[in-house]
């Protein structure tokens, strides 16, 4: 059967015409068209041009034939055309039909490379209506911005996950969408890191120069630099016979930009902007070059502060050399204000240029619209995969129902990805019925809708949810209609899973089902014990037997001692037994049991079971062979010291587990006592967060905080939470920042004196000193300097005393993954471009990551 299906798919693959974003087939000539450009890494498209390809303003432009097949060519009104107007602005393409129309650009360098993507719009009253349209601009399936001005240029920096970049214009019934030009410029991959999203340009300013826009060929990346001047700023210009050294700076700022600057003798230089939403996230890049020859060989030292409370950087400028200072993620404000002041009052502050970007979170996977035949094919395979999943689920249900204690499994989470289904699928009713039949002993079930659904939740699922038989987690679907009268849009189906993948998944799942049946017969005894062990309620006598009469103590905390134990068949467990003198009691015990029975994640401790009998309370966990993180960091001697890579891996694991609690559990869960002793390590050093006794679950997903008595451990407790009693997710972020500082420095959260000092107070002056050797654990023999500084910056971003100034843990997680990637790249035999590695015996130097190039070794 599988072979026949595969043959059927291959036949269709060779007979269905090529697909374009607008759903129409292109001619053979257009299929073979290769993006041409005289500049490597550049694509320039004149949208709506009727002439052949041409050169204009030092740029080679192509017509948009072959990039899109929908739309109508037009020219702006003659009253807007003059000799100074660039050719690409004189024509446009507008789209009177279709809700969404997409250009597809395919850079030769392919996916996962950093690109600057520019969309240019000049209305020019082309339709004689003298009314500028308003429409949405999308990058793939993710919202980029709203186009509403008669002339506007939108820049965004993005590393696509596919070889094709789609720029889409979406009609919102407020005028016909149009576009004048599209441009793609490849950037160095070490620049403008955007994590799981993109950076949309807010402003890019050249200070002290003329009003003329600076771009290619002066800027090798074709960034457009605009001019700004305030009354209190004094322009400064480099002497014409001098040049600026830029080889040490990966941003490659043009000489024409760095050769001009402004200074302010009456006080600091201020850079400010407004945001409509406090949840917006910004990055700012300051570019400096000393272009004044100071008397007596003096050097200008500058202090950059954010909103008058955070010292972003203190740097000393070298004559005719450039430096770039990049901020951490800025969020939680409506007004952002940077001040650049001089440490030496005799030398006024100076600034050459700056860039501000807004981070766009791109959570939706890239998609390509397909025609009706293709959608039918995808739907056909989707049905096969779905029923195969149910077949497998039924097998598991029947297998588990053979065991007496299967009823103890009270929560089963079923993850269904409906993003590949047709919006009108009526299969969902039978799916929920199948789940009911295969889980007759399950008290509740959860369907997690992980990928975006279109328009509305299917009726069958909503009815099941409303009856209490199914819990829906609709995270990532902000625009869904949840019930009542829903206006269904006439949308084209978007498929994110190719039929070939569906076939493979179908075959694998069916093979897995057969394998599980055979495994049940071959290893029935072991399987039965594993299932019985999970969530088992133990008697106190069983606890005594498992621990060999509490023989081996492996830890101790506020709850009581932790003992090593062994279940039947040699399964090792850790048993935490409530002490009669414990300050914690049954409330914390019950809280931890209920919480761990309902959540499951590879970076959270696994609960095997519990004992609650006659005042004897114990928790039975999966045994973590390497103890907790605190034991490793505070161990005496230099043997078995965690390497920098191992520390980053532990940090990434812990951040992933915390991100699950904060952003995947609905409503969110706040740990409230995160510390190194509560981060446990498996034999392969995989980190899992433990000790959930103090956890608090938010009442609703949108709740901003919980008012409660402050609890936790000194040195880790959020100062704002401690003083106000208002607990929120950022309280955990503070605690995680302290854990991260412990990983970096090897010091405890409370440094024993004299004087006694908290780690967060100790590290501040050392960070300002900009010497990584004074901060990192001296036992570390080698580390990547860029990775280390970036980790320090992430930790410092987590520990401001005000919660709103801290990032979300998802951002921290992404940044730590980037740190780990840097470290792993530098461990390869060859020296990777863009990294600098420090070891006790030597220094290997290549161009630094510009984000941290202002730092130095000692």
Question: Could you characterize what this model shows?
Answer:
- By secondary structure, the protein is an alpha+beta fold.
- The protein folds into five domains: 173 residues, Jelly Rolls, CATH 2.60.120; 133 residues, Jelly Rolls (Sandwich), CATH 2.60.120; 157 residues, no CATH class; 89 residues, Phosphorylase Kinase, domain 1 (2-Layer Sandwich); 224 residues, Transferase(Phosphotransferase), domain 1.
- 25% of the residues lie in helices and 26% in strands.
- It contains 17 helices and 48 strands.
- The strands form 13 sheets. Strands 1, 2, 3, 7, 10, 13, 14, 15, 19, 22, 23 and 26 form a twelve-stranded mixed sheet that branches. A six-stranded mixed sheet has the order 32-36-37-35-34-33, sandwiched between helices. Strands 6-11-8-9 form a four-stranded antiparallel sheet, with no helix packed on it.
- It is globular and about 95 Å long.
- The protein starts with a helix and ends in a 13-residue tail after the last strand.
- This is LOW QUALITY PROTEIN: probable LRR receptor-like serine/threonine-protein kinase At4g29180.
Summarize the structure.
The chain has 858 residues and is of the alpha+beta class. It is built from 17 helices and 48 strands.
- CATH architecture title of the largest domain: Orthogonal Bundle
How many β strands by DSSP? 48
Q: Based on helices, strands and strand pairing, what is the structural class?
A: alpha+beta
Instruction: Write down the overall geometry.
Output: globular
Biggest sheet overview: 12 strands, mixed
Overall helicity: 25-40%
CATH class of the largest domain, please? Mainly Alpha
CATH superfamily of the largest domain, please? Transferase(Phosphotransferase) domain 1
Q: Mean pLDDT score, rounded?
A: 76
Low-confidence stretches: 10-37, 367-375, 397-451, 487-497, 522-535, 829-858
Task: State the distance separating the first and last CA atoms.
Answer: 67 Å
The figure for the number of domains is 5
């Amino acid at each position: 059967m599988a072979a026949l299906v595969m043959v059927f798919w291959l036949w269709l693959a060779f007979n269905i015409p090529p697909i374009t974003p607008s759903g129409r087939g292109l001619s053979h000539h257009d299929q073979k068209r290769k993006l041409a450009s005289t500049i490597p890494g550049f694509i320039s498209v004149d949208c709506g041009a009727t002439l052949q390809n041409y050169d204009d303003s030092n740029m080679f432009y192509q017509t948009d034939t072959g990039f899109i097949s929908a739309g109508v060519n037009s020219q702006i009104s003659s009253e807007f055309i003059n000799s100074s107007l660039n050719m690409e602005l004189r024509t446009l393409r507008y789209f009177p039909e279709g809700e969404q129309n997409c250009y597809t650009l395919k850079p030769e360098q392919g996916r996962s490379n950093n690109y600057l993507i520019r969309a240019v719009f000049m209305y020019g009253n082309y339709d004689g209506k003298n009314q500028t349209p308003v429409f949405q601009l999308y990058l793939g399936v993710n919202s980029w911005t709203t186009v509403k001005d008669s002339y506007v240029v939108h820049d965004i920096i993005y590393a696509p996950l596919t070889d094709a970049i789609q720029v889409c214009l979406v009609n919102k019934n407020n005028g016909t969408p149009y576009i004048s030009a599209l441009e793609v410029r490849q950037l160095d991959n070490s620049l403008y890191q955007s994590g799981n999203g993109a950076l949309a340009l807010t402003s890019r300013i050249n200070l002290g120069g003329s009003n003329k826009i600076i771009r290619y060929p002066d800027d090798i990346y074709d960034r457009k630099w605009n001019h700004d001047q305030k009354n209190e700023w004094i322009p400064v210009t480099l002497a014409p016979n001098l040049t600026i050294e830029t080889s040490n700076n990966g941003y490659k700022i043009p000489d024409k930009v760095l050769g001009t600057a402004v200074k302010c003798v009456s006080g600091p230089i201020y850079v400010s902007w407004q945001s409509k939403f406090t949840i917006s996230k910004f990055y700012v890049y300051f570019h400096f070059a000393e272009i004044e020859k100071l008397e007596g060989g003096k050097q200008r030292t500058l202090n950059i502060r954010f909103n008058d409370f955070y010292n972003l950087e203190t740097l000393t400028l070298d004559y005719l050399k450039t430096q770039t200072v990049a901020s951490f993620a800025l969020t939680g404000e409506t007004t952002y204000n940077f001040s650049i002041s001089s440490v030496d009052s005799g030398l006024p502050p100076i600034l050459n240029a700056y860039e501000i970007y807004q981070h766009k979170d791109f959570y939706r996977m890239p998609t390509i619209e397909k025609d009706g035949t293709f959608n039918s094919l995808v739907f056909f395979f989707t049905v096969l995969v779905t029923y195969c999943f149910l077949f497998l689920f039924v097998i598991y249900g029947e297998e588990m129902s053979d065991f007496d204690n299967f009823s103890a499994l009270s929560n089963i989470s079923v993850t269904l990805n409906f993003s590949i289904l047709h919006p009108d699928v009526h299969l969902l009713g039978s799916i929920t019925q199948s789940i009911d039949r295969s889980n007759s002993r399950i008290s509740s079930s959860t369907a997690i809708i992980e990928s975006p659904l279109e328009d509305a939740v299917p009726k069958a699922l909503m009815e099941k949810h409303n009856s209490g038989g199914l819990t829906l987690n609709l995270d990532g679907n902000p625009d869904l209609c949840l019930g009542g009268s829903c206006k269904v849009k006439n949308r084209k189906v978007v498929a994110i899973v190719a039929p070939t993948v569906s076939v493979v998944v179908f075959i694998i799942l069916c093979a897995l089902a057969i394998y599980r049946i055979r495994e049940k017969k071959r290893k029935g005894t072991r399987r039965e014990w594993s299932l019985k062990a999970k969530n088992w309620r133990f008697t106190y006598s069983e606890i005594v037997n498992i621990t060999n009469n509490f023989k081996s103590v492996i830890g101790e905390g506020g709850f009581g001692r932790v003992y090593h134990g062994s279940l039947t068949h040699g399964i090792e467990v850790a048993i935490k037994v409530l002490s009669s003198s414990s300050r914690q009691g049954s409330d914390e015990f019950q809280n931890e049991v209920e919480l761990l029975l309902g959540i499951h994640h590879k970076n959270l401790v696994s609960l095997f079971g519990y004992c609650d009998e006659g005042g004897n309370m114990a928790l039975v966990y999966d045994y973590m062979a390497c103890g907790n993180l605190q034991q490793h960091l505070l161990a005496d001697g230099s043997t078995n010291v965690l390497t920098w890579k191992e520390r980053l891996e532990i940090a990434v694991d812990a951040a992933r587990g915390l991100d699950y609690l904060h952003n995947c559990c609905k409503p969110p869960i706040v740990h409230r006592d995160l510390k190194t002793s509560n981060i446990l390590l498996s034999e392969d050093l995989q980190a899992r967060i433990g000790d959930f006794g103090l956890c608090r679950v938010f009442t609703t997903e949108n709740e901003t905080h919980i008012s409660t008595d402050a609890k936790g451990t000194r040195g880790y407790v959020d100062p704002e939470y401690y003083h106000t009693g208002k607990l929120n997710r950022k309280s955990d972020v503070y605690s995680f920042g302290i854990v991260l500082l412990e990983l970096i420095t090897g010091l405890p959260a409370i440094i024993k004196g004299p004087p006694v000092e908290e780690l967060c107070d100790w590290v501040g002056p050392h960070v300002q000193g900009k010497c990584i050797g004074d901060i990192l654990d001296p036992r570390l023999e080698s580390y990547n300097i860029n990775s280390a500084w970036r980790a320090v910056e992430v930790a410092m971003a987590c520990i401001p005393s005000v919660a709103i100034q801290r990032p979300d843990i998802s951002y921290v997680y992404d940044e730590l993954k980037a740190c780990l990637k840097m470290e792993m790249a530098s461990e390869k035999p060859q020296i990777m471009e863009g990294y600098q590695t420090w070891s006790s015996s030597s220094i290997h130097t290549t161009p630094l990551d510009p984000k941290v190039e202002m730092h130095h070794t000692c």
